[in-house]
C-alpha cells in the first residue's frame, strides 16, 4: 500500500534504461498499482461520505490529513506508471528508429524460448512476449507514423547514419548472403565473406541490419 | 556605425547565397544541438537547401552513366558534398525531433502560441508528427492503465496540486556563445551578474539570459 509497488516499477524502469533489450512487461505490478489507486479512491469516497459534500478541512484536521495522504499517493502512483510506460515506449521508439523490427524479434524469442531463459520469462498466462498487447499495438502505429514522417524527407533518409560522413566510398565485408543490390555503378552480388569497395549511401541499410561489416 | 560594421556589410554581400546558406545551416545545426530549447523552424533556409539537394541528386543521376574520367571526378566531389549536406539536414531534423519527443506537450502549447507570428516554432510536418505521436502515446497510456483510474486523475496535462504535469526544458542550462556583433550589457536574471559582450567574445552563460540575442543572430552558439 501507499506507493510501494509503484516504487518497484520505477526501479524496474531505471534498470531498463541501461539494458540493451526490453525486459518483460510487468503486467502484475501495473495491475497492482492501478488496483491500489482504485482502492485509495474508494477510501477517499468513504471518508467523505458522512460529510455529504460539506467537508471543512480546518475543522477536521485529522481527516483532512488522511485525505491528503491518499490523494498524494494516487498522484504519485500515476506518475510512476506514466514514467514506467514512457521509458518503455521511448525504448521501443528507439528500436523503430534503428530499424529493428521489434515485433519480429519478440516472435523469434517466442520461437527459441523452448529452453533456458525463455522458461523464466514464461508469464502467468504463458505469454513469452516481453511486450504488452498495448505496447505491440503502439509499436505498430509508431512505425507507421515514422514511415509517414520519413516519407516527407525522401532525399535525406532520416534514419541514416548520424556519424558525419568522411568518405564517399567505404570497404565492407559481407557477413551474410544479401543477394543482389542495385547501385548507380551497376549491380553487385553480395555473397558471404566477399569484400567490396562501395558507396556508403548504398549499403548503409545493410550495415545497420547486420549483413555487412564496415572495414576501417 | 564604425568601420567594422561597414567592413562586415561589404564582405557579407560578397559571399554568394549558396555559401551563406551553408553557413546558416551549419549554424542552425550547431545551435539546435546545443540549445536546451527548440528553436524556430528556419523555413526559407530549409526550402532553399532542400531544393538544392534535389537538384544535385538529379545532376548526379543524369551523369553517372558518363565514364569520362573528368566528369566522373567532378561527380565524386559533388556526391561527397551531397552526402555532407544530407548529413547536416538529417542531424538537424533528428535533433529537433528528439526535443519534440521529450517535451511534446510543452512545445505543442508554444507552437500554437507562435503560429500567428511570422516565425512558427515547428514546421507543418513536425507539428503533424507531434500531434500524431501525442495521440498515440495517450491512447497507449489510456489502454494500458489510465482508463481504470478515477476520472479526475485521467488527464495528462494536469496542473492541480502545485505541480504541472507538462515538463519543460531547462531554460537555465549553461551554453557557450560567441558574439558576432556587439551586444552590450547582459543581465543574468536572479543574480547580481552584469557584463558586456563585445564582438568576438566567447562566454558561458545561462540560456535564458541570452536567448533573445541568439534568436536575433547577434550571438551564435558553439
TrEMBL record, chain A:
This is DNA replication complex GINS protein PSF1. Signal peptide: none annotated. Residues 61-153 form the GINS subunit domain. Component of the GINS complex. GO terms for biological process: DNA strand elongation involved in mitotic DNA replication. It is found in: Nucleus. It comes from Lophiotrema nucula. The keyword Lyase does not apply. CDD domains: GINS_A_psf1, GINS_B_Psf1. GO terms for cellular component: GINS complex. Pfam families: PSF1_C, Sld5. Residues 166-215 form the DNA replication complex GINS protein PSF1 C-terminal domain. Keywords: DNA replication, Nucleus. Residues 107-133 are annotated as: Disordered. InterPro entries: GINS_A, GINS_bundle-like_dom_sf, GINS_Psf1, PSF1_C. Belongs to the GINS1/PSF1 family. The keyword Nucleus applies. The GINS complex plays an essential role in the initiation of DNA replication. Required for correct functioning of the GINS complex, a complex that plays an essential role in the initiation of DNA replication, and progression of DNA replication forks. GINS complex seems to bind preferentially to single-stranded DNA.
Automatic annotation (TrEMBL), chain B:
Residues 56-143 form the GINS subunit domain. It comes from the Eukaryota. One of its GO terms (cellular component) is GINS complex. Keywords: DNA replication, Nucleus. SUPFAM superfamilies: GINS helical bundle-like (SSF158573), PriA/YqbF domain (SSF160059). Coiled coil: none annotated. Residues 169-222 form the DNA replication complex GINS protein SLD5 C-terminal domain. GO terms for biological process: DNA-templated DNA replication; double-strand break repair via break-induced replication. It is found in: Nucleus. InterPro entries: GINS_A, GINS_bundle-like_dom_sf, GINS_Sld5, SLD5_C, Sld5_GINS_A. The GINS complex plays an essential role in the initiation of DNA replication. This is DNA replication complex GINS protein SLD5.
Amino acid at each position: 500500500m501507499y506507493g510501494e509497488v509503484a516504487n518497484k516499477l520505477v526501479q524496474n524502469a531505471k534498470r531498463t534504461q541501461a539494458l540493451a533489450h526490453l525486459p518483460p512487461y510487468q503486467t502484475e505490478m501495473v495491475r497492482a498499482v492501478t488496483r491500489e489507486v482504485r482502492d485509495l479512491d474508494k477510501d477517499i469516497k468513504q471518508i467523505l461520505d458522512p460529510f455529504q459534500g460539506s467537508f471543512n478541512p480546518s475543522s477536521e484536521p485529522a481527516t483532512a490529513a488522511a485525505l491528503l495522504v491518499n490523494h498524494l499517493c494516487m498522484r504519485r502512483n500515476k506518475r510512476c506508471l506514466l514514467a514506467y510506460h514512457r521509458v518503455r515506449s521511448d525504448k521501443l521508439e528507439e528500436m523503430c528508429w534503428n530499424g529493428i523490427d521489434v515485433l519480429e524479434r519478440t516472435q523469434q524469442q517466442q520461437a527459441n524460448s523452448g529452453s533456458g531463459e525463455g522458461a523464466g520469462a514464461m508469464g502467468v498466462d504463458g505469454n513469452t512476449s516481453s511486450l504488452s498487447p498495448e505496447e505491440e499495438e503502439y509499436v505498430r502505429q509508431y512505425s507507421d507514423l515514422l514511415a509517414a514522417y520519413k516519407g516527407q524527407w525522401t532525399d535525406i533518409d532520416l534514419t541514416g547514419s548520424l556519424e558525419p560522413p568522411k568518405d564517399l566510398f567505404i570497404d565492407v565485408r559481407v557477413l551474410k548472403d544479401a543477394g543482389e543490390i542495385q547501385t548507380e555503378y551497376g549491380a553487385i552480388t553480395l555473397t558471404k565473406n566477399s569484400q567490396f569497395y562501395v558507396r556508403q549511401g548504398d549499403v548503409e541499410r545493410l550495415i545497420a541490419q547486420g549483413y555487412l561489416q564496415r572495414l576501417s | 556605425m564604425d568601420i567594422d560594421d561597414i567592413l562586415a556589410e561589404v564582405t557579407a554581400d560578397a559571399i554568394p547565397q549558396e555559401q551563406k546558406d551553408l553557413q546558416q545551416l551549419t549554424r542552425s545545426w550547431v545551435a539546435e544541438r546545443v540549445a536546451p530549447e527548440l528553436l524556430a523552424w528556419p523555413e526559407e533556409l530549409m526550402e532553399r537547401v532542400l531544393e538544392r539537394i534535389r537538384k544535385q541528386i538529379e545532376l548526379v543521376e543524369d551523369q553517372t552513366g558518363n565514364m569520362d574520367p573528368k566528369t566522373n571526378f567532378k561527380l565524386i566531389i559533388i556526391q561527397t558534398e551531397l552526402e555532407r549536406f544530407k548529413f547536416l539536414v538529417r542531424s538537424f531534423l533528428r535533433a529537433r525531433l528528439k526535443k519534440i519527443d521529450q517535451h511534446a506537450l510543452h512545445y505543442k502549447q508554444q507552437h500554437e502560441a507562435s503560429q500567428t507570428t511570422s516565425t512558427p516554432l515547428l514546421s507543418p510536418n513536425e507539428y503533424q508528427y507531434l500531434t500524431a505521436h501525442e495521440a498515440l502515446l495517450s491512447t497507449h497510456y489510456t489502454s494500458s492503465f489510465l482508463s481504470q483510474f478515477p476520472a479526475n486523475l485521467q488527464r495528462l496535462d494536469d496542473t492541480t496540486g502545485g505541480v504541472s504535469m507538462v515538463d519543460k526544458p531547462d531554460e537555465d542550462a549553461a551554453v557557450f556563445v560567441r558574439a558576432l556583433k556587439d551586444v552590450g550589457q547582459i543581465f543574468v536574471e536572479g543574480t547580481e551578474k552584469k557584463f558586456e559582450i563585445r564582438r568576438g567574445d566567447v562566454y558561458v552563460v545561462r540560456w535564458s539570459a541570452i536567448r533573445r540575442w541568439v534568436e536575433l543572430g547577434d550571438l551564435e552558439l558553439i
